[in-house]
Amino acid sequence: MPETNDTRLPHEKGFHVSWDQLHRDARALAWRLDGTDWRAVVAVTRGGMVPAMIVARELDLRAIDTISIRSYKGDGDKGIQGDLEVLKSPDAELMGDGEGILVVDDLVDSGRTLELIREMYPKAHFATVYAKPKGRPMVQTYVTEVSQDTWIFFPWDMALQYVRPYRGDD
Fold first, then answer.
1. CA distances (Å), 138 to each of 22, 35, 109, 126, 146, in order?
2. pLDDT in tens, 77-100
C-alpha cells in the first residue's frame, strides 16, 4: 500500500481539554510561577481569562486586568489569522514597562499575539498553559507543549452531545 500524506484538517488532530484538566493545568502553571512577587496578572482575552483567574487565586493576587487583541477572523477552525488589532489595553499606570507583571494566556500558537504584547511591555513575564513549538520562544513559563498541527479544543468551545457506539444502536 503506498504511503499517503496526512489529509486531516487541522481540527481533526485534536487535543480535548476538559474543565477539570484545564483547572489542574492552570494550577500547575501557578505552582511554576510561585516564588516571585508579582504586582498584577494580565489576562489575554478571551482564552487567557480562565487560566489567569485560577493563577491569580492560587498566587493570592488581587490586581487583575485584561488585554484584548484580535487576530483571528471567522468561526473556529474556519477562521484565518489576519492583522493584529489591540481592542483594549490594560491600565497604563499599572503596567509601566511590564516589570512585575504576569501576562497569562491559554495557548501560544504562532506567537504573534504575545510578540505584540512583549513589544508593549518588554519586562513582563509571559506564561501560557499550552505551547506550540512555533510560539514557544515567546513564553517564559508553560505547562504542556503540543505539536504545531494539533488543534486544542477548550472546554468553552465544546458542547455535550450523543455519540453512537462503535457497534449496535444504543
1. 21, 21, 10, 7, 15
2. 455 567 899 999 999 999 999 999
Rounded CA-CA distance 97/110 in Å is: 23
Is 105 known to be catalytic?
Answer: yes
Grid cell in block for residue 138: 515567546
Is residue 109 part of the annotated active site? The answer reads yes
Of 77, 91, 106, 169, the active-site residue reads 106
**150: which 3 cell numbers?**
494539533
Model-level pTM?
0.83
